[in-house]
Design brief:
heterodimer; A: mainly alpha; 11 helices; 2 strands; globular; B: alpha/beta; eight-stranded mixed beta sheet; about 45% helix; about 10% strand; MlaA (chain A); lipoprotein (chain A); Phospholipid-binding lipoprotein MlaA (chain A); signal (chain A)
């Protein structure tokens, strides 16, 4: 049917040849300015999407179950907790909490940036840590971003990817969401490094005060924009998997 | 672009806006900055030109759900658990206030970006706001659509109306002074049919109804969107696929920039860089997004009705089932395929329909021509460069709506909704 429409467009084209000129009704006919494959048999959408489905996922059935588990946990536990958190704390406090944990996170960012021998980036992250920890009072404020030192994240998964380690199988982690074998290993290393560094003594104090870890988890959910069901598609799992894997490729390449 | 071309473009666009101003009530000096309809459709309005709106902290809102099809709930496979009840979002004012229903565009979820924008806009102006998913969306099809075969506007309007009545009952404590209705894209067309149905049912007696960038002829719109994936993009001749080539461009762009920054300004900045997308690539992107929606519709409709085009009837499905084989089939089914295999046979059987022409007539604004002409409470906003229109559609709107059509010279498909002049006009229309 689209073929007939295209023919009709071709036949009426001379009437509206002027670039971005309008017809008698004032319509500019934007599609007429496109280069369209004349045979209408281009299968690039199909080729691209079928190609995008090809992500190594040998544990797919298990992963899909974890996806549904996460979705339920999110709806019934985590998001209600986040809503409660939003109700009892003023916005300024929530921003302070986010900044504080984000500043802690700049430690693994710096380590991984150094491991990848990224000199300029390491300097910038060092600058962020210095300004935010001092002027920003232990990271409660983020003056570094205002000075133009934007947050740049580097984790051990990225470092491994940087040195050529492949993704490995896709993994849907309970509560934490999409990942792959390489990045899951990276998470463990970053976590261990953070407790070793014990920056601002937080790692040590947290072991006696689980409420700090809890607050960090709530803040993590609060500041992560992903909502399960947001894509509103029966194929959300596949789409998340694709986006995760490509976003990681992008972070590693950059 | 050489200077003379820029000047020529400027001359053409200013002529255009003058022409538009002479014919309709569009503002004479229209400042929406993007004159490329593809870019406007994808990027929307630059942040600094959007109106100031209330933030989430200032809005008393919540998500609610309804059990509209109890007999279907048990039949749906377990991996459909999130969509067994129809969810919607309500933002409530403290005291009595008018209530506005907002209907999403094709495949759209009630919490999508444009829906959230409209909610903030109307909530800020003092309305209670109810956000509804499109009848073509996965959640609405599963939880609220009695036949789960969307695309026939009359039936879609009945499903929407049932949901709206049920919401009114569920929120009976809400103090409502009067009812309003709006929707963008397909949601605009849906609004017209819902308003028409309300003239008989009289539950809401909508005071005013606004259609934002609606399709005029639904089939023209669908065909246009399908045609976009036939745009000639360079990827076809290379080894990598179209998506790979886009990601490659994005990677180069971030490498040049020195770091990754995803924000509102990304697309404008990207289009200024050497990696910029051609019109054909942007068209391909818009067309692809529509094809994704079409495959969701084809899959969901087929599964709920057990038609067996994509999923074999009675195929066991649960949370762990690998859906990729079915997705592969669904991706090959464009909107024409959905119409031929599912919508038209359904409509023939139920409505004793004949051919495609009759279906087009019944599902497009043409079917409501007399009603729309005689109803001063209904207005339409549209763009002279909207991708979903065809030749003659604006003529139809002008003849039918007369003064009640506001035609903007640019904006692509819904790209200027959040431009401050447009949002101002949307509020003023309801203020009356």
């Amino acid at each position: 049917m689209a073929k007939y429409l295209f023919l009709a467009l071709l036949l009426t084209a001379p009437l509206a040849q002027a670039e971005h000129g309008a017809d008698a009704d004032g319509y500019t006919r934007p599609l007429e300015h496109l280069k369209i494959n004349p045979a209408l048999d281009q299968r690039e959408f199909e080729r691209s999407t079928l190609d995008a489905l090809d992500i190594y996922d040998p544990w797919e059935s298990w992963n899909r179950r974890v996806y549904h588990f996460n979705y339920r946990a999110d709806q019934w536990v985590m998001l209600p907790v986040v809503r409660g958190y939003e109700k009892v704390t003023p916005g300024l406090v929530r921003t302070g909490v986010s900044n504080f944990f984000s500043n802690l996170g700049d430690v693994p960012n710096l380590l991984n940036s150094l491991l990848q021998l990224k000199g300029k980036r390491s300097m910038e992250i060092t600058g962020r840590l210095l300004f935010n920890t001092t002027i920003g009072v232990f990271g409660l404020w983020d003056p570094a971003s205002r000075m133009g030192l934007d947050k740049q994240s580097e984790d051990f998964g990225q470092t491994l990817g940087f040195y050529g380690m492949p993704d490995g199988p896709f993994v849907m982690l309970p509560l934490l969401g999409p990942s792959n074998l390489r990045d899951t290993g990276g998470l463990v290393v970053d976590f261990a490094a953070e407790s070793q560094v014990n920056f601002l003594n937080v790692a040590e104090v947290s072991s006696d005060h689980p409420e700090i870890t809890l607050l960090r988890a709530i803040d993590k959910r609060y500041s992560t924009p992903l909502r399960y069901g947001q894509l509103n598609s029966p194929f959300e799992y596949v789409k998340l998997r694709y986006v995760y894997s490509k976003a990681r490729d992008l972070q590693i390449a950059e | 672009m050489p200077l003379y071309l820029r000047l020529a473009a400027l001359a053409v666009t200013s002529c255009l806006s003058l022409m538009a101003a002479a014919e309709t009530s569009a503002p004479a000096a229209y400042g929406f900055p993007i004159d490329n309809p593809f870019e406007a459709t994808i990027a929307g309005t630059p942040a600094e030109l959007r109106p100031a709106l209330p933030s989430d902290d200032d809005i008393d809102q919540g998500d609610y759900s309804l059990n509209l099809l109890p007999q279907r709930e048990a039949k749906l496979p377990s991996n459909f658990w999130p969509v067994k009840r129809l969810s919607y979002r309500l933002a409530r004012q403290a005291g009595p206030a008018p209530l506005i229903f907002i209907i999403a565009g094709t495949g759209g979820h009630y919490s999508g970006g444009k829906m959230e924008f409209l909610k903030r806009l109307y909530y800020g102006a003092g309305y209670h706001v109810v956000q509804l998913s499109s009848p073509t969306s996965y959640d609405f099809m599963a939880a609220a659509s009695r036949h789960a075969t969307p695309g026939f506007s009359v039936e879609d309007a009945k499903d929407l109306y049932r949901a709206m009545v049920a919401i009114r009952e569920q929120q009976e404590s809400l103090k409502i002074t009067e009812f309003y209705l709006t929707g963008y894209s397909l949601g605009g067309l849906d609004s017209a049919f819902v308003s028409h149905l309300d003239e008989q049912e009289r539950v809401f007696n909508f005071k005013r109804v606004l259609l934002i960038n609606p399709p005029v002829n639904l089939y023209t719109s669908v065909s246009n969107l399908q045609l976009l994936v036939q745009s000639e993009v360079p990827a076809v001749r290379n080894q990598g696929s179209f998506f790979e080539s886009l990601l490659g461009k994005l990677t180069h762009y971030f490498q040049d920039k020195g770091h990754i920054q995803m924000d509102d300004a990304l697309l404008y900045d990207f289009q200024e860089s050497k990696e910029r997308l051609s019109n054909e690539e942007m068209a391909m992107l818009i067309g692809s997004s529509f094809r994704f929606t079409a495959s969701d519709i084809a899959f969901t409709s087929d599964l709920i009705n057990q038609r067996g085009f994509i999923t074999p009837p009675h195929y066991p499905l649960d949370d762990g089932t690998n859906l990729t084989p079915f997705y592969k089939r669904a991706l090959l089914c464009d909107f024409d395929c959905y119409m031929t295999e599912q919508l038209i046979p359904f409509w023939r059987k139920k409505y004793d329909g004949s051919g495609l022409q009759m279906l087009i007539q019944q599902t497009s604004l043409y079917a409501l021509e007399d009603y729309l002409r005689q109803s001063p409470k209904i207005a339409v906003m549209h763009n002279a460069d909207d991708l979903i229109l065809g030749p003659g559609d604006l003529g139809f709107l002008k003849r039918t709506f007369g003064e009640r059509l506001t035609l903007y010279p640019r904006g692509g498909h819904c790209g200027n909704m959040d431009y401050r002049d447009n949002s101002q006009a949307m509020l003023e229309f309801f203020r009356g």
